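SAMPLE LOG
Freezer: B-3
Tube label: C17
Construct: single chain, 197 aa
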Amino acid sequence: MLWAVAPPVPASSTAPAILIVGDSLSAGFGIEVADGWVALLQDRLTAKGYEYRVVNASISGDTTGGGVRRLQRALDRHQPAITIVELGGNDGLRATPVPIIRENLAKMVALSLESGSKVVLAGMQLPPNYGASYTDAFADLYSQVARDLEVELIPFFMEGVALNPEKLLPDMIHPNEAGQPVLLENAWKVLEPLLSK
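STRUCTURE (predicted):
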């Protein structure tokens, strides 16, 4: 497994951290890391005068179970002011039972909150071929976790990108370079109100 790391940025090493714990959507699968939405986020923060450093702890192929196992170490190391949890898509593609995904995400959110971090949960959806019962329950679990633990929610992180061939790699799953700014906007709308200068 390879950890995706945002390229060096002007932000001070003592600046508060925004920790991103995600899968291939945040690790920049199939593109240059510098073109990914995480790197674009650091660029925007810097351009707008926000003194944050973005720490990208995303691993392609990761699941919520993997996120639970590695989150505490990342929280202890980086002590983030904000944590963005972008996981669950791989669980869904493997038809992991929804209660297990929900429990894992809730654990991650709770650990982040206990560390003093604000939390943004990135909602995901599945293709319809997984059946309405499962896909509906999967989509709903994100809003349930966000509501129960009172954290911010990106309703659908892939909004404007999913099923759009102009924004996706040939696999029709992962965003290409053109899709990355859309992901940034989806995250920014929820993230910006949590930022302080």
